[in-house]
Structures are given as structure tokens and as C-alpha cells.
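QUALITY CONTROL LOG
STEP: pairwise intake check
CHECKER ROLE: data steward
CRITERIA: each record must contain a sequence immediately followed by its C-alpha cells, with no blank fields

ENTRY 1 OF 2
RESULT FIELD BELOW
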Amino acid sequence: MATPDSIHIKGGIDACDLMDRFSEWCMHGAYTPFQENFDIGISTSQAIRRYAEGTDPFECGGTAEGDNGNGSLMRILPVCLYLYERQKKICTSENEAVHILHKVSALTHGHIRSQMACGIYYFLVKSILEGTGTLIDRLQKGMDQALSFYRQDFRNYTELGSYDRLNDLRAFQMTPEDEISSSGYVVHTLEASIWCLLNTDSYEQAVLKAVNLGADTDTVGAVAGGLAGLFYGYAQIPSEWLETIRKREWVEQLIRNE
């Protein structure tokens, strides 16, 4: 919620404003239902601490192997949608769009693997919004475009290996549930989210399957739900779910940029 609010107010990506809002969320519970932050990942909390100590925003995210949590992937959808609209208006190149995505990821997660997850998600978002046909067809097209983009630079090849299971989504769809992990590792989160989409036929089914995998349920549900919402549409969100949202009017106003 902090991200679209910042994008709307600033008219684009402002790293300091984003980090200021993340800090307000962390320290004072901004953007939460009850003004209370009850859970925060280690990498994210460390990045916010570095920012408070004066580190450049784009240098705050950790770059070690152990910094590949799913925090930046979980919050990247508003940036993907902003860049999608920006591309239509001013013909932003894919290189520039992905560069921005990587920089926004690096606010809290600076490892290239985490940045790639955000980039892959962006291509999935674009393919869903622009494509026709079944969900699996659109997701496969998005994956193909993401892999093609990253393969332009041979330095990405090693890290791309982390996402090998997503090369062929029809084969991945048949993966048994006990081979799907819903841990906080960014690769697992992306895999689990896509697997849930491939093995369900509605928004409700996709989100329920995601959270019922257990472990890091909120993040897998958010990542899967974002793509499911774009494909199935707002009208397919169960009304009983919407009715229980705290501060629903404020949330919907923020979404509409009012």
C-alpha cells in the first residue's frame, strides 16, 4: 500500500519517499489495519535500518546469498503496473523498465536473484494484461519473454538456473504438491505462486491453494493473488472477502488514486 501511495503522490518512483514510507510502516504501523507492524522480514528490517543510518536508498538492500527473501517480490506489483502504463504512454524500453524494477527491489533486496524474480513477475504481469488465450498460455509467454530478456547478458546465466523449473510451465504444472515449497525464499515463492495458478480455475481457488500450502502463506497468497486478480478480474474476488477488509474505503480510494 505504501508503494502505490508514493507513486501517486510523487508521480513516479522516488526512492527516498518509498523508504520513508517503508520506515513509517516499520516503526509506526503506517498502512496497516491496526497501526501495528506485527511481522517484518530480517532483510527488510536491516535495509530500513541502513536507510535510517544514512545509506543511499538503492544501496540498502542486502546482496548476500542469505538476502534472497521474498520481500521485494511481494511488494513489486504496483511498480509493474506503473511501468506497464508508463511504457504505453512514453514508450519506455524493456531495458529501462527492468532497470527500474531492479532498483526498486534493491531498496530492500539487492541480490540479482531477488531482482530477477521481480523482473520475471513484471513480464508475467505484462503478458496477462496484453495476451489472449488461457492463463497458462499467457504465463508461458511471459516466462519466455523474461528468459529471453535475461539471456541477452551471459552474466545472468548462472542465476537463471535458479528458475529452471519454470522454463516449461506445462511440465511444471504436473509437479506434485509435496515438491512445492512455500518458504520465504524468493525462488520458492515465485514457483509456489505460479504452481497455484496453473492448478486452479478461479481467483478464489488460486488464493486458497496458495495460503493452504502453509509456511509463508501471506506472501505466497499475495504474489499468486496479484496475478490471479489481473487475469480473473476484480469481480471474481468473493464479496465476503471484500466485506471483511479493514479500512476498505481508504484502500479503494488509494487504488483509485483519489
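ENTRY 2 OF 2
RESULT FIELD BELOW
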Amino acid sequence: MNNYGYYRPGLPFVVKNLIIINAIVFVVTLFAQQFMYQTFSLFYFTSPFFKPFQLITYMFMHGGFWHIFFNMFSLYMFGSVLENYWGGKKFFLFYMVCGIGAGLINELVMYLQIAFAEMPGLVEATVNRVPTVGASGAIYGLLLAYGMMFPNNVLQFIFPPIALKAKWMVIIFGAIELLSGLSGTNSGVAHFAHLGGMIFGLIMILYWKKKNRLYS
């Protein structure tokens, strides 16, 4: 299946507004970092800073220019195709479920890290001070969806300079995140949140497919 049949000029409505909201939040955060990070980032549920709404708001927070740039570029590249194909309401639901699911998986992983730690109190005290930010979990859900909806579309990467079918991209990215999470590589990155976005995206796509709603 080729995505070019679903190309429409300009940014689709939901993708455009998600990018705008993320950009506005990023700019505001530059001027009020402490308030924004303490209020809208996702903290571990035992942290005094934790609020349930953070499972949504953390998706619109980012840790730096390149963090938001790559997430918004990926949202533009893959989200535009999916929104044009599914429509705005279905796309928005998928995006939000993947992002919230990524946050829940991240909370679960932190709980397990504390539960199996030799000094759980010390680990929990550390975890309580470290927030999670970024749309990456939702973005990884979009990557999973793109790979499942358009598995044979060929993507040309600039670095490394290779061409790769979408289905292999999803498998490789998922494997990298799993291995990185298990090995502790780039410990400041929420690898399991990325995987959580992919897991919840997979669940939604399989559910829609079972209900014959995937292509409508």
C-alpha cells in the first residue's frame, strides 16, 4: 500500500494544531521553567508533584530544542499521512491513547524498578524528583501505526543514508528501544515509555481491525 494516495497539500487540522500547541508550550517553558516542569511534567505517582492530569500534559512538554524538533518533524511526516487516511477524530484519539499509554507504562516501569531495588527507599526518593517529558511515546505509536498501515512504503533516511521499508523501520526502532531500556543505555531517555506508545498503538490497531474499523 502506498501513502501517496492520501497526500493532501498543507498540514491536516489535528497535526497542525498539535504542533502549534507544542511550540507554544515550549516557548512558555523557556520563560517559566520551574513552574512549567513542576506543574505539567509527568512525575512518579508517589511524588508530591504528581497530578493525574500530567498523563496528558507531559506530552506537550519538551526538554530542549532538538527534542521538540525531532518529535514535531516525526509528527508532521507520519502523523499527516495517518490523519489524512483516518480522519482527524480517529487520529487524535489514537495519538492521545498512545501518549497516555506511554506515560502509564513509564509509571509501571518506575514502580518495578523501586520494587526490585536493593534500596527501594533511596530509588523512590530519586525517581520522585525526576519528571518525564515529551511527545515521544505518542510519536512511537504513530511510527508503529505507519509501519502497520503502509508496511511496504520505502523511507529514505539522511543519516544513515539508507532506504528502508516501513515495517523494518518499526521492528528496528522497537528493538533498539527494548535493548536500550534493558541495558540502561542513555539512562536519561524513557525507552520503555517509547515502547509503551507502540504497545498501546498495537492494541488499538488490532482492536480496530477486529471490529472492521481500521480502514474507516
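INTAKE CHECK: passed for both entries
DESCRIPTIVE NOTE, ENTRY 2: Residues 59 and 135 are 4 Å apart (CA to CA).
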